[in-house]
């Protein structure tokens, strides 16, 4: 039987998580334990920050009590003395195994541990880091998901490189082009948006390299630059010749 683990975050596609399956581990970030039967949880945030953040809500949350009530092992960066079910993440073992120390969120630590423990299939749900909605419209966030997107793709690539099957949801932006529907086979396929860019580049190059005839004028002795320009613009002066000119921008 394939060793599988499901990694769950709080994005919309968490709703796609399959029902509980015997023998399949389920790992989630904070609060996913409220909706899923987890095997392990991960709260890798700095303790002072996550406590202060939850306490600052309009309806304050006692995150330590929430974690105690989760009743599953919870990986943290450093042991929480007031939460008995927390356990320190094996960061030194992970750093030793993976020479690139690239962990931009809790999901990255979850991925690394799943690889480290030898799981053969990693499924992700709610790890959406989305830029566009289901209809292709751009989603406006105050926070950029670039760090999370790149980091997620990195760890999915590490897993794939080790022969581990990685599954992402349709709604996730991880390991996909930024624009929905764009192709991901550079050199073999061309996205419509890229094709438009290419056509514009070539059109602009032709425009810049084009030549045209220009008239040459010589100012009469003693005429100021301003008056000379005015006389040329109103057609009061006759050109002394023509020349080929190349358009530049």
Q: Would you mind describing this structure in some detail?
A:
The chain is an alpha/beta fold. It has two domains: 4-167, Rossmann fold (3-Layer(aba) Sandwich), CATH 3.40.50; 192-246, no CATH class. The chain is built from seven helices and nine strands, in the order βββααββααβαβαβαβ. Strands 5-4-3-2-1-6-7 form a seven-stranded parallel sheet, with helices on one face. Strands 8-9 form a two-stranded antiparallel sheet. Strand 6, helix 5 (146-161) and strand 7 (165-167) form a beta-alpha-beta unit. Helix 4 runs parallel beside helix 5. The longest helix has 18 residues, at 192-209. It is elongated, with a radius of gyration of 30 Å.
Write a concise keyword list for the protein shown above.
alpha/beta, two-stranded antiparallel ribbon, 249 residues, elongated, seven-stranded parallel beta sheet, 16% strand, Rossmann fold
């Amino acid at each position: 039987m394939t060793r599988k683990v499901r990694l769950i975050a709080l994005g919309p596609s968490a709703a796609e998580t399959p029902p509980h399956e015997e023998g399949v581990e389920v790992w989630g970030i904070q609060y996913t334990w409220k909706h899923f039967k987890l095997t392990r949880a991960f709260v890798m945030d700095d303790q002072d920050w996550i406590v202060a953040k939850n306490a600052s809500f309009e309806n304050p949350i006692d995150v330590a009590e929430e974690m105690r009530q989760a009743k599953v092992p919870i990986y943290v960066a450093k042991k929480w003395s007031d939460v008995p079910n927390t356990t320190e993440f094996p960061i030194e073992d992970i750093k030793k195994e993976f020479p690139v120390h690239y962990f931009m969120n809790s999901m990255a630590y979850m991925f690394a541990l799943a690889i480290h423990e030898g799981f053969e299939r990693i499924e992700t749900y709610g790890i959406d880091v989305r830029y566009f909605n289901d209809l292709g419209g751009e989603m406006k966030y105050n926070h950029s998901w670039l760090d999370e997107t790149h980091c997620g793709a990195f760890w999915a690539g590490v897993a794939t490189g080790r022969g581990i099957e990685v599954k992402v949801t349709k709604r996730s932006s991880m390991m996909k082009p930024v624009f929905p529907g764009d192709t991901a086979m550079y050199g073999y396929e061309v996205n419509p948006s890229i094709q438009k860019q290419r056509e514009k580049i070539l059109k602009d190059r032709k425009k810049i390299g084009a030549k045209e005839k220009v008239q040459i004028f010589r100012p009469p002795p003693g005429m100021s630059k301003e008056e000379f320009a005015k006389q040329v613009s109103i057609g009061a002066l006759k050109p002394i010749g023509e020349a080929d000119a190349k358009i530049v921008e």
